[in-house]
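Quick one before lunch.
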Amino acid sequence: MWIINARYDSPDFFETLDRELDSLITGEPNLVANLANISSWIYHALPDLNWSGFYLWNEADGELVLGPFQGLPACIRIRPERGVCGRSYTSGQTVRVDDVHAFPGHIACDAASRSELVIPLKQGSTVKAILDLDSPTPGRFSDRDAAELTKIVERLATRLFPAP
Ligand code: SME
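Model of the methionine sulfoxide complex:
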């Protein structure tokens, strides 16, 4: 049984979350299993989310395709020029949107979503997947959330997508 000890209101939240996610995937090489558990862990550790999950880059189709997630069913395919996820994919950068209604091209999968944080997972300089977090609260994600989660996800990506 897994127990989530990371408390969002604790000063060491991100440090604990980092350690917990690291041990969550240790010893398990299956990508889908690891992405599923990471999406669940984040969904339960971070308050005020309505969606947490991954889109994986599909080279053959030239699109992001829905991967493991928590939340309502979501759009399955996202072209790289579309949405917040596409912006993160094409820029290779974390994209934070405080008000999704003000983001041109935002793709509304769950009408409840009001703010969004998307973080790319890279193998070297190639984006292999993105982590998408949605919240029903405008401005849910702080600068610190974005910076700390980016660091955590960058570290996870080196283990999930090791250099060939
Ligand atoms: N809102 C995203 C689409 C994915 S869902 O939120 C799960 C976007 O604009 O790319």
